[in-house]
Amino acid sequence: MIKRNSSPPLCKMLLLSILIVVQLGFSQDNVDQDWIFKNSKTLSELWELDEEHHRGTFLITSYKPIYFTLAKFSTDTNKFPISEERNNVLPEPVDLNVVEAKFQLSMKTKVFYKVLWGKADVWAAYSQRAYWQIYNKELSRPFRETNYEPEIILNFPVNFDVLGFKGKMLGAAFIHESNGRSNPISRSWNRLAFHAGFDRGPLQIMLKNWIRLGGSNDDNPQISDYIGRGEAKVTYDWGRQRFYAIVRHSLKFGNKSRGSIQLNYTFPIIKNFSGHIQVFDGYGESMIDYNHRQTTFGLGVSLIN
């Protein structure tokens, strides 16, 4: 029989502490105007798309948001992960807590500047997400899942108008993502992705579509029908607050019309230290959950947006 864990006192104390800090952060809005929440970088700044913003090669800069979710609650924790390869299953369910911690690290660096007749830049990027059963004392607080995602990105700065937006970048990337585990819970895939970036004042839109490379005989052959074949990320800055949504879809209809939506809200606490609320619904909250649907609610802090 599977024991149902409840949220321990430590979790409740952390949640209460975050709420108190959030309130203090909002209450100081009119106290100190000498610092500005640095969350309104344009695509030109983030990807150094012109001479004004070029910083050189092999300098480490941020890529995806860097955050630490102190408590993330799932409506349906995946205690018995399974893939289409029915032999790849655990012998029995794992007694996981419904509340865990999560963090994401991400960075990039420009490797080559003005290649392909001076028209493009080449970047290398690395992201990592970890799901930590920090409140699960019975299992010695293990890391439930860690996802590794290195990328090689070819980026073309552009400048054109479309539907009131300014097209700023086009490009392609080779993306590998895996959880670094062995069977029966090994998950991995390779993708060739194509992207386009647009902005309009405080609003940014990144569109991405990918083709899966290989994978007909692996541990997750139908991953594209769950996690998706395309992604749209919309970011909006409102003063010192930021809203962003990430939507993925399989680009299929009928019973294969699947995907996910992730909603994020960050708000200033002190300088570049921000509060972070995240809501996720759908498939693929992590690699091990690629074919498992759930809704999660997370509360934590963000260091780099």
Protein architecture, described:
It is found in: Cell outer membrane. The protein has 305 residues and is mainly beta. It has a single domain, classed as Beta Barrel (Outer membrane phospholipase (ompla), Chain C), CATH 2.40.230.10. 8% of the residues lie in helices and 50% in strands. It is built from two helices and 13 strands; from the N terminus they run H-H-E-E-E-E-E-E-E-E-E-E-E-E-E. A twelve-stranded antiparallel beta barrel has the order 2-3-4-5-6-7-8-9-10-11-12-13. A hairpin with a 2-residue loop joins strand 11 (259-270) and strand 12.
What's the domain count? 1
Mean pLDDT across all residues, rounded?
87
Write down the Rg: 20 Å
The quaternary state of the protein chains shown equals: single chain
Uncertain residue segments: 1-11, 20-39
How many helix segments?
A: 2
Secondary-structure blueprint:
Elements: H1 9-27, H2 43-46, E1 60-62, E2 66-74, E3 99-115, E4 120-132, E5 143-162, E6 165-178, E7 188-200, E8 203-213, E9 230-238, E10 241-249, E11 259-270, E12 273-283, E13 293-304
Antiparallel strand pairs: 1-3, 2-3, 2-13, 3-4, 4-5, 5-6, 6-7, 7-8, 8-9, 9-10, 10-11, 11-12, 12-13
